[in-house]
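Before relying on records like the one below, remember that each one covers exactly one chain. Contacts with other chains, cofactors or solvent are not represented anywhere in the record.
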Amino acid sequence: MKLDGFGLFVNDMGKMIRFYRDVLGFEIKEDENTSNVYLIKDGTLFLLYGRNDFERMTSRKYEYLKGINGHFEIALYVDTFEEVDAEYYKAVAKGAVSVLEPETEPWGQRTCYIADPEGNLIEIGSFNRPFER
């Protein structure tokens, strides 16, 4: 198997699309008024699924956390420490919820955290060098 992408089950599709597109720069492939939305960031597929639509499809009810949750994070990398700070402040100015202001950690990474409109954590970080796989 090959990892194809990852997805979030969302309550307010329009708000989440606007956040990931307008605040974080993800490319959207569909109209905002759909139940499954494909966004792309740096070649990675990112999906948004409407919670109600998914529950109908699977004939099940699921529980969802409210507020900022700590189940996972979406990690975004930038090349320099300065970019961490700039991207953090830009995202907060556009409506992201601040969770942790930029700081340099003992292991040498500069990192910060924001949350999307439904409370999912997003890290913006750098080791002050271009990304390496």
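The CA atoms of residues 19 and 133 lie 27 Å apart.
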